[in-house]
Amino acid sequence: MKKLRVLLVDDEIMIREGFKRLFDWEAHDCEVVGEAGDGMEAIQQIDMLQPDLVIMDINIPIVNGLKVIQMSRMKYPHMAFVIVSGYDDFSYCREALRLQITDYILKPVDYEEFGSCIDHLKISLYETNHAQEEIQQEERTIHGLTRYLQDHLQEEISLLVLSEQFHLSAQYISQLFKSEIGVNFLSYLTSIRMEKAKKLLVTTSLSVAEISEQVGYGDYRVFTKVFKKSEGVTPSQYRRDFLEQL
After folding, report:
1. What pLDDT is attached to residue 88?
2. Nearest CA to 209 among 195, 192, 227?
3. Fewest C-beta in 10 Å: which of 27, 55, 118, 216?
4. For residues 16 and 42, what is the distance between their CA atoms, to the nearest angstrom?
5. Taking a C-beta distance cutoff of 8 angstroms, is the pair 32, 79 a contact?
């Protein structure tokens, strides 16, 4: 797990120095990459450094801590914020919770408590990042699968063929179609074959048998049956209806 990049924000330099010297960042796989003494500087540092975590006091000059979080949330929705404040005030806590901060710690800081907060944060960020990576991988995979189908409609295609091409289990591929597209593999394949067939029927003079082969059906009678079930008319009637509308 990579180190968490941390920005310290407090108008009291002694507080910032205390954080840097009294807390063992290395032991918690963190590194302090910057610091700021007021809200405007904090915003600039956040934009420049884009840290994983911002440790921030609420009562800082120019722009208060809650406003900094609110503005930063719009640009960096996944950035983590921990408020360290001398204010044990419910209104502050409520607003902080509304902004979905990670934790709210009161001064003087209990560094053991702070360490637990950091460790829990790292686990949470890891789980979130891992889940996002899995989602992105699934999206890339389904894109590759659907692109393959579009490029090989003339061929005999099955889950087994896709399994061998993409080195994935047929069951996993089947689940991907249901979860990412919302239909099973066969329904999706039939749908894109019918769409390709309709396009060929109205844009070419190919025979029904030739179109049948173009969209992966070796037997035009099977193609005709599937087409009629999908569209309500035979391929020939579909073409005639289209031409009559011109």
Report:
1. 60
2. 227
3. 27
4. 13
5. no
Structure tokens at 213: 């082969």
* Alpha helices (runs of H) in 50-110, residue ranges in sequence order: 65-75, 90-98
For residue range 212-236, list pLDDT tens digits in order.
Answer: 999 999 999 999 999 999 999 999 9
- Residues pairing with 103 in the sheet: 82
What does the alpha-carbon distance between residue 121 and residue 114 come to, in Å, rounded to a whole number? Answer: 11
Task: Classify 128 as helix, strand or coil.
Answer: helix
Q: 131-153 burial, b if ≥16 CB within 10 A, otherwise e?
A: eeeeeeeeeebbeebbeebeeeb
Average of per-residue pLDDT across 15-26? 92
Separation of alpha carbons 97 and 104, rounded Å: 9
Angle between helix 111-151 and 185-203 (nearest 10): 40
- The CATH number of domain 4-109, selected from 3.40.50.720, 3.40.50.2300, 3.40.47.10, 3.30.70.920: 3.40.50.2300
